[in-house]
Structures are given as structure tokens and as C-alpha cells.
Amino acid sequence: MASALMLFTTGAEIPLTTREALSGIFGSISLACWIFLLVPQLLENYRNSSAEAISLAFIFVWFIGDIANLAGALWAGLVPVVVAIGVYFCIADGVLISQCLYYGIINKRKQGKALLSTQPSSSSADAERPTQENDEEEPLLKRTRTNSVTIPGSADNRRRSSASARRRRSSAIADEHLAQIFEESDENGARLWFKNAMSVIAIGVVGAAGWAIAYESGAWKPTPLASHADEEKMATGAQILGYLSAVAYLGARIPQIIKNARDRSCEGLSLLFFILSLLGNLTYGAGILCHSTESAYVLKNLPWLIGSLGTMVEDVTIFAQFHMYRVRDQSAPEQAVI
């Protein structure tokens, strides 16, 4: 996460240009994305009562990036609202990490109790052993439910015929259930696509409206390009922390990508979480470049540009995993029936 609010600076009373307006709008949309970013994944974990789909390495490295970003903002003396949003990021990361650890501990305890309850006791095993030995010693005719002599092989034929009938019934039930699965998956997929699309549109509207309100109230003002030449150079330590946060953001998604590939599944992950991440990074980078493409200005914001635009490639990779493993999960039941 980069400090999207770096775009909300004050300047002299100058006319609002198209590029400056786009810079403010993109920055505000990016800020809205960051504020709501972790909410979908927190809700997904709560619904599943599990956080096994999330790589803890992913969250911890991301947390390190947010800490470095906050420290860099404090060192560089950025506006208080930037520092405030940096604190919010760290708190939100802490909540997600705490939730993951909580569900991890709770589920391990449940699995341990379930394992103990399924293990048979030694007394019950000893009690069953004499019965089995006695059954083996009894004559074949005495094991029938009646005293009448049965035709050899007739019991086996009845068992085979009844098993065949059960297989036919279970096959018919499986075919019907498979059809329901595909119908429900298509319906759920369309509903999920619509929900995510509406969420993205809502985030965009909220961000744009937030910028309009800030501009009309005077909280946001265009920054003159000429002032960049007079700006003080950012402290070296703050610049280093900015690059550290960029490296952390770039490396954070790698453990998640590896985990998805190892599990061959993205079940339990919120797709909207990664959509908002991609949208937030895209609009943040666009906001900076719309404001100015001068080399001095781009160089000053280079760590945040790398941290934002660089992670988009990894987000696209995770989107590909969502699609690939969803297709595999849908085709697996059909292959199993065949």
C-alpha cells in the first residue's frame, strides 16, 4: 500500500486543469480502495470460520511494508492525514493477522478433539476380537439367519444384485447432484461477478465524490508544477524506507501465489480483496503521473510507484489462479463420475 493521500496537498490559488483534476480524483479513489481493502477478506474468513487460505507470510511481509511506509511518512514530514492513514493500514493489518492466528488456533484444537474422539479404546477392540474369532470357528450353515440350508452362492448373488441396484441409484443421484452443482456454480459465479462489479463502481463513486467535496470545501487544492523545483529534497532515510516498503509490497504476494499453486485452489480467498488492491495501485500510480511526469518529481515518488505499479503484475497472476483453479474444480466432479 502506498500513501495515496500524498496527492492531497495544498498550494496557491491556481486554475484547476484537467490533469490536476484527474490526479485528485485518482488519488481519492485509491484512498477509498485502501480504506475498504481488507474488509472483504475479513468477512470471508468470518463466514468460513477459517483463514487457512491466507498465507501468513503474505500478511506479515505486507505488514512490514506498511510499517516502513508509515515510518517513511513520519520521517519525510508528510501531511498529518497521510500519517493517519498509515496508522490505519497498520491497525487493519494487525486485525487480519490476529484473525488468522485466532482461527488457526481454534481449528487446530477442534481437529485434535475430533481425532481423539475417533480413536477406538483398547477395551472395545478387545471386546470385539473374541466375537470375530468365534464367528470364524462357526460352521458356514450356522451363520445364516435361519436354520434352513441355503444354496451355495445364492447369498452372494443377492448381495451382488442389491449392490448393483444401489450403484445405479447412487449414480442417478450423483448425476442429478452434479447438474445442480453446475447450475449453482453458474448462478453463484454470475452473482459474485455482479456483486464485485457493483462494489468497484461504488468505490469509484465514493472516491470521486470525496474529491469533489474536498475541492469544494477547500481541503484539496491544485499544486502548481513550478513549485516542484523549490521543494526540499526528501531525507535519505525516508527515501530508503520508501524503497524498503516497495520491496516488501513486491515480495508479499509471492508466498500467496506459491500457496495457491501448491494447494491448486483459491477457495477461502476474497476475489474482491485483490480487485481492490489492483484498482488502488492502478489509480495511485495514475494519480502521481497525471500530476506531473517531470523526472525530479517521478524520482522522488519512485519508491511508491514501484510498490504500487509493480504489484499489479502479481495481482494479475492471482486473478489467473482464481480462474484456472475454478475451472479445474468444476471439471473435477465430472471426471470423478466418469
UniProtKB/TrEMBL annotation:
The keyword Transmembrane helix applies. One of its GO terms (cellular component) is lytic vacuole membrane. Keywords: Membrane, Transmembrane, Transmembrane helix. It comes from the Eukaryota. Residues 117-171 are annotated as: Disordered. The chain crosses the membrane at residues 25-43, 55-75, 81-105, 192-214, 234-251, 271-289, 301-320. It is found in: Membrane. One of its GO terms (molecular function) is basic amino acid transmembrane transporter activity. InterPro entries: LAAT-1, PQ-loop_rpt. This is Vacuolar membrane PQ loop repeat protein. It comes from Exophiala bonariae.
